[in-house]
Design goal:
With 330 residues, this protein is of the alpha+beta class. 70% of the residues lie in helices and 8% in strands. The radius of gyration is 28 Å and the shape is elongated. Keywords: Cell membrane, Membrane, Protein transport, Translocation, Transmembrane, Transmembrane helix, Transport.
Length: 330
């Protein structure tokens, strides 16, 4: 079987797949899923009565008048849920809280001014209302729990998401640059070009998968993408190392037969490694924590697409580049 021979079909498959994924993401879903980690919002982690199901949680939130909740069960045994609200709810309640705090502070200062001074008495402190606290007042009665069942509460600003996105893009850029520099130093620029474009192929495909599956952006999602870059480049470098050991001259890189021989020589190892790695990740998908399932799902897809690109994308790019280089110098 020849792998490099069908490079045009690989190109068509990859471009069609990317177009399908991103087309569905933006046309059918209206874009990528939103997440309070990037957009900001409010997250309440609550422990609910054992007899309350997800439907009961949704009904309670709806009865409280709070809109567009994202409800996620994080612990089946303890019946623990994360209830998230986006920036619209956060900003609406922030305006209410700011107004109430301003009025209450004014009353507090007036009462304090008219209060007789008692020697040795500590000055009372003004306690401000909080956004999370006000939402709890509205929501908890419908959930039929007290505030001690709220395990954690977070109010995340929009600037946090912007900083997180900026840091993620920097990490991705630096990773790509370092990999390109490493492959250029260890092999040659043509190899570095093949490896870098194959990685971009994997990243774009994986982002398309994240979009079509409506996986919420989060730190574990970013970690999964960065993990896939390392995994994919490892397979690619092994194939490149076999190619370098097979050729006697750089011009041999234009030969489909030589490239196919190198790919076939590592094929069983590449497929077996990917299969065994996926077994452990599938175990997380089946029985792991809910918070890790998006991470594991991305890894499974990424390993498949990364294995495909190492075999069918990286080496053909090297061949095409070398043929173009020889034409320029002939």
């Amino acid at each position: 079987m020849s792998f490099v021979k069908y490079r045009r079909y690989y190109l068509i498959f990859s471009l069609s797949g990317m177009a399908l994924f991103f087309g569905a993401t933006f046309w059918h879903f209206g874009g990528f899923a939103r997440s309070i980690a990037f957009d900001g919002g409010i997250r309440l982690s609550v422990v609910l009565p054992a007899d309350m199901s997800r439907d009961g949680v949704e009904a309670a939130v709806k009865a409280s008048g709070l809109e567009n909740p994202l409800i996620r069960q994080t612990d089946v045994t303890g019946n623990k849920y994360d209830i998230e609200f986006g920036p619209d709810v956060r900003d609406a309640y922030q305006a209410i809280v700011d107004k109430a705090n301003a009025e209450d502070r004014k009353k507090f200062e007036e009462e304090l001014k008219n209060r007789p001074v008692v020697e040795g008495e500590k000055r009372p402190l003004f306690v401000e209302k909080t956004v999370a606290g006000e939402i709890e007042k509205v929501l908890l009665p419908h959930l039929k729990i007290e505030s001690d069942k709220v395990v954690s509460r977070e109010v995340i600003s929009a600037s946090y998401g912007a900083d997180l996105l900026k840091t993620s893009l920097k990490a991705l850029l630096y990773t790509m640059l370092l990999i390109t520099a490493y492959v250029s130093f260890r092999f040659d620029f043509s190899y570095a070009l093949g490896a870098t474009l194959a990685l971009l192929h994997d990243i774009i495909f994986t982002l398309g998968y994240i979009g079509i599956m409506q996986i919420e952006p989060s730190v574990p999602v970013i970690a999964a993408v960065l993990t896939l870059i390392g995994y994919s480049i490892n397979d690619t470098i092994i194939i490149f190392d076999r190619i370098r050991g097979t050729i006697s001259d750089r011009s041999d890189l234009t030969s489909s037969t030589i490239l196919d021989t190198a790919i076939k020589g590592t094929l069983s190892r590449t497929i077996l490694t990917s299969f065994l790695t996926m077994l452990s990740i599938v175990a997380i998908l089946i029985s792991g924590a809910e918070s890790l399932k998006d991470f594991a799902s991305i890894l499974v897809f990424g390993i498949i697409i990364g294995t495909y690109s190492s075999i069918c994308v990286a080496s053909p790019i090297v061949q095409v580049y070398e043929r173009m280089r020889l034409r320029r110098h002939s």
